[in-house]
Write a structure and sequence with these properties.
alpha/beta, 12% strand, two-stranded antiparallel ribbon
Length: 342
């Protein structure tokens, strides 16, 4: 396991983060406390130190487990949690991005975690109601109070993230250092705006659903019925063809399809100059160990290009327009290829 700096911060986090949405059986499909402990211990033994949870993961059970598991060496682990999702139904101020819910949600999370502070506190999703300056000032107050060390944002339009960090820089508030988004061979929409923005603003990226809701593991190949979360994904035939290509690459290098899918996310963005830290989740130690083994089975440049070609998307306007030879010639006066780009 190697370590990366978390965005424009000095915080060192392991190159794979452990997602703990599977910790607890409240939703009918997670891991028991005993299995969750084994998963955590295996991750820590491999050198992992970056743990990701949220206030509503398994109705709070995930935070309770995480808090208990890290307690023996709290200072070693980087613990991230999130707020926004409701803490109580039918209460308008018990959900959303506003300061009141922010403070109440953090206090509830700290109680479940049995901690005095969290290392990273995420806005979980944008509510399109709360002013961006209220969010950023509220988060900065939590940092100044010592209850949060760093702040991040998840599942929010790129323009909002850019506005928020620009405002924070202007006013001397704590800026987002980490961006959590959906990204995989199946869903590359993040390449339109999120990933270029993250590189430009110095944000680390912690992508979720890197296995495409399980489709890229190969378990739905050969006409197997697609169920659960994967059933809600669009372009199912295309996705299954991608799963076949991932499996073919896996056979060539003696890896599992999951390892290939993880490495494409991990290696492709790193090669492009960004800091990407995939979130891996597991319901068993065997699944976790399989994911961790991806670190010892890197893809070649040819394999990365092959998978990228098989999964490519149209970036759409204005990206494709601005990248066209005609427009580049107009913008650069025929000198584009003579300029060394950053």
């Amino acid at each position: 396991m190697r370590y990366k700096l978390l965005g424009r911060s000095g915080l060192r986090v392991s190159e794979l983060a452990l997602g703990t949405m599977t910790f607890g059986e409240n939703w009918g499909w997670g891991a028991s406390k005993e299995d969750s402990r084994l998963i955590f211990d295996a991750y820590a033994a491999a050198g992992g130190n970056f743990i990701d949870t949220a206030n509503r993961y398994t109705e709070g059970t995930s935070e309770e487990y995480v808090g208990e598991f890290v307690r023996r060496d709290r200072g070693h682990f980087v613990v991230a949690t999130k707020y926004t999702l409701f803490n109580r139904r039918d209460d308008p101020n018990a959900s959303g991005n506003q300061r009141k819910n922010m403070v109440q949600s953090l206090e509830a999370s700290l109680n479940r975690l049995k901690m005095d502070y969290v290392d990273l506190f995420y806005v979980h999703a944008w509510d399109f109601v709360t002013p961006v300056d209220e969010v950023m000032r509220g988060l900065d107050d939590l940092v100044r109070a010592g209850k949060v060390l760093y702040v991040g944002i998840s599942d929010t339009p790129a323009w909002v993230v850019a506005q928020a960090n620009t405002l924070a820089d202007l006013r001397g508030w704590s800026r987002f250092v980490s961006l959590q988004i959906r990204y995989s061979l199946i869903d590359r929409a993040a390449e339109r705006d999120f990933l270029p923005m993250a590189r430009s603003l110095g944000l680390a990226v912690t992508p979720w659903s890197i296995l495409g809701a399980g489709v890229l593991t190969g378990k739905y190949r050969g006409g197997s019925h697609v169920e659960g979360r994967a059933a809600r994904w669009e372009r199912r035939e295309r996705d299954l063809r991608l799963a076949d290509e991932v499996a073919a690459v896996a056979d060539e290098i003696g890896a599992t399809p999951s390892q290939v899918a993880i490495n494409w996310v991990r290696q492709t963005e790193t090669a492009a100059g960004g800091a990407i830290i995939p979130l891996i989740g597991a319901r068993s130690v065997a699944q976790l160990e399989d994911n961790l083994a991806s670190l010892s089975r890197p893809l070649t440049d040819e394999q990365l290009d092959r998978l990228s070609e098989a999964s490519k998307i149209e970036l759409g306007f204005p990206h494709d327009f601005l990248a066209s030879n005609e427009v580049r010639n107009l913008v650069f006066g025929g000198t584009y290829n003579n300029i060394d780009h950053r």
